[in-house]
Design goal:
The complex is a heterodimer. Chain A is mainly beta. Helices cover 0% and strands 47% of the residues of chain A. The chains are: A mainly beta, B mainly beta. At the A-B interface, strand 4, strand 5 and strand 10 of A face strand 6 and strand 11 of B.
């Protein structure tokens, strides 16, 4: 596609519900990142994939958070038993590494999650 | 460990006047530095990046930033603000050899008519 696509754009969940957030990266992009952006804050790293391999999940705040990218393209971030503190914008970004690590990230518009 | 500090959470300028958004970084190694802009309801967009080539980096929409190692700074400037520049700006640091991008807390730029 032309850019990184995220869905849904908005999600309202009742506390305790499970949610799944989808990210469609730019075709051919190897690297995929998930970030969490709380209100008034900068994005914070959650997890990183290179193709289908999840190389770093150190930013996931608890074991209720789970991400996958089974075929190396679309990724899903799942949050189980949502809590109010999970309310944030979840951003997905992709890049096509050329061997350097200072790659430009292409971001989606994010999914705004509100947990009531 | 990497970190980045954006010194101003809000900046207001009049249209046509210069813009200065300040950023200081901490990095153990030779850093890569970026500025991203976030317009309401739009994805983050790269303005410019520094990767150890020229210390003065030119970006899109007339923005530029200067890497000053002695001051550990990477301030973003623009000679003349335009109404369309109103947005949130993020300074980002990444240590060479890593994929981790550390974002600052952002500076909200307001442009007054």
């Amino acid at each position: 596609g032309a850019g990184v696509s995220q869905s849904p754009r908005y999600k309202v969940a009742k506390r305790g519900q499970d949610v799944a957030l989808r990210c469609d990266p730019i075709s051919g992009h190897v690297s995929l990142f998930w970030y969490q952006q709380a209100l008034g804050q900068g994005p914070e790293f959650l997890t990183y994939f290179q193709n289908e391999a999840q190389l770093d999940k150190s930013g996931l705040p608890s074991d209720r958070f789970f991400a996958e990218r089974p075929e190396g393209s679309v990724s899903t971030l799942k949050i189980q038993r949502t809590q109010q503190e999970d309310s944030a914008v979840y951003l997905c970004a992709s890049s096509r590494p050329t061997g350097a690590t200072n790659e430009k990230l292409f971001f989606g518009s994010g999914t705004q999650l509100s947990v009531l | 460990a990497q970190s980045v500090t954006q010194l101003d959470s809000h900046v207001s300028v009049s249209e046509g006047t210069p813009v200065l958004l300040r950023c200081n970084y901490s990095s153990s190694y030779s850093p890569s530095l970026f500025w991203y802009v976030q317009h309401p309801n739009k994805g983050l967009q790269l303005l410019l990046k520094y990767t150890s080539a020229a210390t003065l980096v030119k970006g899109i929409n007339g923005f530029e930033a200067e890497f000053k190692k002695s001051e550990t700074s990477f301030h973003l400037t623009k000679p003349s603000a335009h109404m369309s520049d109103a947005a949130e700006y993020f300074c980002v640091v990444s240590d060479s050899g890593t994929y981790k991008y550390i974002f600052g807390t952002g500076t909200r730029l307001k442009v007054l008519a």
